[in-house]
Model the fold of this input.
Amino acid sequence: VRYSIQPLSASLYHYDNRPLRSIEITSASLHHHDNRPLRSIAITSASLHHHDNRPLRSIMTTSASLHHHDNRPFRSIMTTSASLNHHDNRPFRSIMTTSASLHHHDNRPFRSIMTTSASLHHHDNRPFRSIMTTSASLHHHVNRPFRSIMTHQPPSITMTTDHSGL
Done:
């Protein structure tokens, strides 16, 4: 998600609303919903792992990469942009600081982002994600919650209707 990645807190959820992860600004302990510890976070960098040490996500102050336990890339974040990818590197979503065009790997447009809020949709208008300036919730098309994010400061995203891609 864009911002200057200074999360005040963030909670990741499974589709059935089981909490997956909590983040604090300076440090965090990641847990499964049954409180099994994942791994803590330092200010400048962190690697998130399942309780059996399978890597799940890596965080740097300026960037972050989400991975499956077998190291398949899932999502990458930069302070000014973010690209979501499937494990085979098919582009899933791209974000720039001032605009964003969401596309499937075959370049089918999803939906652009507004300054204060946005609902991202599949090309057939199934809702995928909603964004507020201070928080964001990712949802599957059946509205199962996937992730919620709160931030230290709201993003300064300029409204755009650009669907040309990045």
Notes: The radius of gyration is 15 Å. The CA atoms of residues 47 and 58 lie 4 Å apart. The longest strand covers residues 19-24.
